[in-house]
Structure formats: C-alpha cells, structure tokens
Amino acid sequence: MDFAAATTAALDGLLTQEGFMAGQGGEAEVIYCASHDELSDRFPRLPQANAQPRGIGCCIDLVIDLHEPGVQVVLEGEPLPRTLRALHLDEAAQSLDGVGTMPLAAALESLVDVLPQLFRASRP
Prior knowledge:
By secondary structure, the chain is an alpha+beta fold. The protein contains five helices and five strands. A hairpin with a 2-residue loop joins β3 (59-67) and β4 (70-75). α4 packs antiparallel against α5 (104-122). It is globular and about 40 Å long.
C-alpha cells in the first residue's frame, strides 16, 4: 500500500475542511500545514493555538509518519494522544495510543474517527 496516497486519500478532505492544506509527503511521511493565526482563531482551545507570535506567517503542522505497521501522529511537536488528553478527550487519546502497531488502514480509520472530536473540542 502506498503510504502517502492512502494517507492523503483518507485525510485530505477532513483536514482541508478544517483549514489545513492538502497533505504533502513521500514514502514515509505526510505533512499537513495550516496557518498558525487562522487555526488559532478557529480552534483557540487547541493547546498548540497561539503558541507562536501572530502575523509572522507561522504554520501549525500535523505530521503523520509511517511507523511500521501503523503511523505516528504529531501535531506541532506534540504526540496527538497528548493533545487529546489535554482537551480531556481521554477515550479518543486511548484509541490512538495503538496506531503505531495497527495496520495502516486501521490506523487511518482511527484518525478519521478522532480528528473531528479534536476539532469540536477546540472550538470556542
């Protein structure tokens, strides 16, 4: 299975709808970038919101790395489960704790289920 193609097919629609650019990457990594200021305004409860100075063109990155057999997911330097726990989304975080050992398709399905919860919890 082509990692980048499978990842972008599963996540581009969801993430671009929330303000990220389409995923870019290669064999073992896909990066989604969003404007720091715009994402901070849209999701002010996100722990990574307003972490950089405004107006300088910074991005918030969601990085998905191939971690055989599954993936590792980091949002602006923090493992996604840690971000979820900071938002009191413990069950969602727990469901992602094992994405590094899941087959890629199952890991991507878990992300498709969890990411909308992250965005809902981060809105004003």
